[in-house]
Amino acid sequence: MKTRTCALSTNRDKAVGRLFFVLFLGAIGLGCMPESHKSSRDKSPEKMLAHIPGSATSTVSVSFIEDGDEATCESLGYDIGFTVDSNGQGTHIYYFYEEGGEYRHEVEFDDNRDYAFSVTASSDSGVSLSWGIPFLYTSTGVVIPVDVAAVIINGGSEALLYKYDPDVQGDAYLLPPFNPRGQRLEIRQFSFCLNLKLEISTTFTATIERTSDWDVVKSAATSHLTLSEGEAYSIEYTVDAIPKPATDVLVVSGTVNVKNPWSYAALITSIQDELLDMREVSLLCKLGDDPVDFKKDAMDAVILDMDEEIECGFYQTFHPEDERELFEFELQNIVNIATVTTDVTSIVEGASTRITSPVHVVERSHCVLVEDSLPEVGVLRDKLCEPDRITYSVVYTAGECGSTDAFENSATLIFGDSGRIVSDTSVVNVTVHPCL
């Protein structure tokens, strides 16, 4: 087999006829069966083309294959392929089913048959091929759209390979190859090539928990008084509320779910989650009610059959003294990457997903309540969020002659979100004149 790449590589939005979407309803049993002989010539390109939701702008490279007999998905390195003999003009839904280890197809839907795959294709009298949104049939009866990695247009002795990056769900007006005399061949066969990949879905949140701390210093204008019996004296006090540098902790949490939608078992060797491509997050995983441990040498590959799902979750904290770079992303996006890896013998391949999340900052103990120990003074500041100095006076009345007293007065900071308190006490020693 000789393959050469044509000088055609272009970015374009993948598109397919609006007519296909009506036919898809018939494919999943939600509408009538398709009319198999309606010509795509009856539709102008402007009306026939429509953007397919979920199909990202893709690069398509076209390779010419001289030996059409060897132009198969499997020989070109794809996991699986579905091949259709072109039956000329018209739009059809092809339903594929497995029989005797091979995939066969039929045009009419049969409720009694278990289908593996379906695709809608429109052949314009063998001149061009348009196709759109293939569907995968799961064992639970759910029909889901899948992506196609490549399409082969076979003109008999020669073929063209349309290779998409990334995989897409539709394309339109694909042309068959030319023969050595420069004549375009009629489409004899077309094949849809898929790489069977696991489905991976993730959620992710990142929060910086910023916890403040405070000091309080209480002092009196004097530390010693000498008074006469019953004498009243106004003592001036100062309360300094001083915030300390806040402590930051980055908290990341989320889920990683891996599902196998294919009829082939997947042999999973690891599921990993990382921040910024370098800091691995510890996952707790389960398959059904059974825990799954992907630690090194902990167990062999986990077999994930069709429609089975491994569910993982994580909650982890990082401190700035250990992971300074992570904290440079405050109020910006932080990247989370989840990757599932399969054994080399697994037909179903692994997958990866990359999502970003803004880093939210949650302030803890940022503000405090300031109280005095004397009931008649009570609350000095009901919500203090910045450093402050509070001054006030307390009237002290001396006791009996010849007595002494250690007059204590405390200021207390109360952290509203935790209830924690910080206090400082000032003592004024009082001496009352001796009795006469």
Distance between the termini: 126 Å
Q: How much of the polypeptide forms β-strand, as a percent range? A: over 45%
Category by helix and strand content: mainly beta
The main β sheet shows up as:
11 strands, mixed
Architecture overview:
With 436 residues, the chain is mainly β. The chain has three domains: 3-195, no CATH class; 201-205 and 249-358, Sandwich (Immunoglobulin-like); 211-246 and 366-432, Immunoglobulin-like, CATH 2.60.40. It has two helices and 30 strands. The protein has helices at residues 18-27, 45-48, and strands at 3-12, 15-16, 50-51, 58-65, 80-85, 90-99, 102-106, 117-123, 129-137, 143-145, 148-154, 159-168, 170-174, 189-194, 199-220, 224-227, 232-259, 266-275, 279-281, 284-287, 290-292, 302-304, 309-318, 333-342, 351-364, 368-372, 379-384, 388-397, 404-415, 421-432. The strands form five sheets. Strands 15, 17, 18, 19, 20, 21, 22, 23, 24, 25 and 28 form an eleven-stranded mixed β-sheet that branches. Strands 1-4-12-11-14-5 form a six-stranded antiparallel β-sheet, with no helix packed on it. Strands 6, 7, 8, 9, 10 and 13 form a six-stranded antiparallel β-sheet that branches. The longest helix has 10 residues, at 18-27. The radius of gyration is 37 Å and the shape is rod-shaped. Mean pLDDT is 79; it is low at 1-55.
